[in-house]
Design a protein that fits this description.
8 helices; 4 strands
Amino acid sequence: MKRMMDLVLSLLALLGLAPLLLLTALAVVVTSGWPVLFRQTRLGLGGREFGMYKFRSMVNNAAAIGPYFTQDHDPRITRLGSFIRKTSIDELPQLINVIKGDMSLVGPRPDVPVQRGLYSDADWAQRCSVRPGITGLAQVVNRSQGLEGERLALDLRYTQEQSVWLDLKIMWQTLGRLSGKGAN
């Protein structure tokens, strides 16, 4: 049921958001050139690597000039990038990852490989027992402001309590969090 919901809602979202996706792609090209999309290796279901897509919100080669995480006022973030990050427009290409089966609409956010060392083996196994999501319980509770331990607790809680109802509730709450407050 969850996979079918992911597919149907992702396809509908891509169709409905097509004008916004095209305008964003054009704005990225005009303001900071190619490429439009940023592909980063992330870890998903069972700890499997996959390429996660985002609209590029940082300068070219940002990964080579800074850490895998961003901070408030990160100089690598472009002016347009700041806007699309605060509104989460940069995340919309992940709908393609959902259709491909790498991600779900709702689940723990996928980590970069270097983050594997932050978890105990048991926590890592539990966290990777579900597909990662575009949004999740940690995102609706804390957005980007939560500490690592708080995010992990919420991710683990999601893996234990996941249901279609919880997913619908998280998606609804996500819409309310798109004001930009708490994003970086």
